[in-house]
Design goal:
The protein is an alpha/beta fold. The protein has helices at about 10-25, 75-85, 90-105, 115-135, 165-175, 215-220, 230-235, 240-245, 250-260, 270-275, 285, 330-335, 345-355, 390-405, 415-420, 450-455, 460-484; strands at about 5, 30-35, 140, 150-155, 180, 185-190, 195, 315, 325, 365, 375, 380-385, 410-415, 435-440, 440-445. It has four domains: about 5-115, no CATH class; about 140-205, no CATH class; about 215-265, no CATH class; about 295-484, 3-Layer(aba) Sandwich (Uracil-DNA Glycosylase, subunit E). The protein is built from 17 helices and 15 strands. The radius of gyration is 27 Å and the shape is globular. The model is unreliable at about 35-65 and about 265-270 (pLDDT under 50).
Length: about 475
């Protein structure tokens, strides 16, 4: 018997899913609906929950009945909540399939190597990217004081249902200032103390008045450098669907036309270049940029990777950790979240932690290079291996971490990490994998990088590479314990 279950939010889906799991209802017996009522004359009729029990499960499928207690890790719940924002007709049915498999003991359902796990991770990655874009491209506009609250309003057209999460983000950023964010689907209102659903009064950006926008547009024009205009890069970084709702978007066509008409010969916008003033001559030496020693990682300009990265990603973990894991560089998700090893490679790392018994919270995790190096591929940012000069430039920070943490054992995750740790650009994995050795008073254990395990197409080779990673963690823990 087919059950029709309605869910219009993650909270509602979670409640329904818990009851279905307790009743032992398999995914194929549930039809999930987001509609308030069925418009289909021949649509499935919603059945009482007790109409389908564990006894109705096929006798030939001994694993069809899930345990009654639906307990999941907090990280998994966060993944499910994030994936529930992904607009897909079967999103709630797919999420129920994930929790059903998890309750059956199929923990690999969260791994990118699993078919369902790969889709789940892709959904989560897409939602995090959409949230990041909304944080970056949403523009608040101030209303006249006579209009009353909210003081600021904004309009955005997200591709997925990320408004509640984004609203929580801005509630932490804007203090007690009242605001409202509108989208084609819903509005959220911040009254100065809490986020609540707003009235559906906004139809688009034309409904928004602004009292201070002219100042912002003047500033935007003045920073425009026609000599550095690259239209394809501009369009690659910010899609047209974002420009149309950004106030500065109205200036862009004229700026592009101005540059094409000859303004690219100048290094400043025409209004700035027309200003009069005294020319102050300087020597050629003084004109050269000086690279000072950065005081913080965020200020680091020792190489040019900072220009295209969202932020520098520092190491994390216990300051008294006996084991330090060094990877190559942050990935796309790490660059956005400011935390190392949280993407697909991080999940492989977590699996290796679980198999080896080594706890993530007991080690210090970092990378040889702190900024994400990437190249555009359509709308995606694909990892690009850092050059040796970039590894060498970032060695300043790795040496600081080694001196500050003082680990007894350093695990090199891959070739780039090994080169950085040894300070030797010619170092290779070779025979060093599986053979610990000492360097500058500490043990070095060399293993494959988790991303290599993800890329290996052959299942047998993938399993061997995973064994090397797990065994390396066990050896590292043993060496650290012996050094105490």
């Amino acid at each position: 018997m087919m059950l029709t279950v309605r869910a219009q939010s993650f909270a509602q889906w979670r409640k329904e899913a818990r009851e279905l799991l307790a009743a032992g209802v398999p995914p194929h017996a549930v039809q999930w609906s987001e509609a308030l009522q069925s418009d289909d004359l021949f649509g499935a009729v919603e059945q009482p929950r007790q109409a389908y029990g564990a006894a109705d499960a096929p006798a030939t499928a001994p694993s069809a009945t899930a345990p009654a207690a639906a307990r999941m890790p907090r990280d998994m719940l966060r993944m499910l909540e994030s994936a529930a924002c992904f607009r897909a007709p079967d999103r709630y049915a797919f999420l129920y399939k994930i929790v059903w498999r998890w309750q059956l003991g199929q923990k690999e359902v969260l791994s990118p190597a699993d078919e369902d796990g790969a889709r789940l991770n892709a959904m989560v990655k897409t939602i995090r990217r959409e949230e990041h874009k909304m944080h970056a491209y949403l523009r608040f506009r101030e209303r006249p004081p006579a209009a009353g609250a909210p003081q600021f309003v904004a309009w955005f057209e997200p591709q997925h249902d990320v408004l509640p999460q984004v609203a929580e983000h801005f509630s932490r950023r804007m203090g007690h200032t009242t605001w409202m964010i509108g989208t084609p689907q819903a509005t959220m209102l911040w009254d100065g103390s809490r986020v609540v659903p707003g009235p559906p009064v906004m139809q688009g950006p034309e409904d928004i008045a602004d009292t201070g926008e002219a100042m912002w547009l003047t500033y935007y024009r003045s920073t425009y450098n026609p000599a550095r205009l690259n239209v394809s890069v501009m369009q690659g970084h910010i899609a047209n669907r974002y420009w149309k709702n950004m106030p500065e978007g109205a200036l862009v066509p004229a700026m592009i036309a101005e540059a094409a008409a000859g303004a690219q010969r100048h290094g400043q916008t025409k209004t700035v270049g027309a200003r009069t003033g005294v020319t102050i001559p300087i020597s050629a030496d003084d004109a050269q940029p000086k690279r000072e020693q950065p005081s913080t990682l965020d200020q680091c300009r020792r190489c040019d990777l900072w220009r295209n990265a969202t932020q520098a990603v520092p190491g994390v973990g216990s300051q008294s950790a006996r084991i330090m894991l060094v990877g190559e560089q942050p990935g796309d998700q790490e660059d956005l979240a400011d935390t190392p090893f949280i993407g697909p490679a991080g999940q492989v790392l977590d699996e290796a932690f679980a198999q080896s018994g080594l706890g993530r919270d007991t080690v210090y995790l970092t990378n040889a290079v702190k900024h994400f190096k990437w190249e555009p591929r359509g709308k995606r940012r694909l990892h690009k291996t850092p050059a040796q000069m970039e590894v060498s430039a970032c060695s300043y920070w790795l040496e600081e971490e080694l001196a500050s943490i003082g680990p007894q054992v350093v695990v090199a995750l891959g070739g780039t990490a090994l080169k950085a740790i040894l300070g030797n650009p010619k170092a290779t994995l070779g025979d060093r994998i599986g053979t610990p050795f000492q360097h500058e008073g500490r043990w070095i254990v060399v293993v494959y990088h988790p991303s290599y395990i993800l890329r290996v197409p052959d299942a047998e080779a993938k399993a061997r590479a995973m064994e090397v990673l797990v065994e390396g963690f066990r050896v590292a823990e043993k060496l650290a314990n012996e050094a105490v």
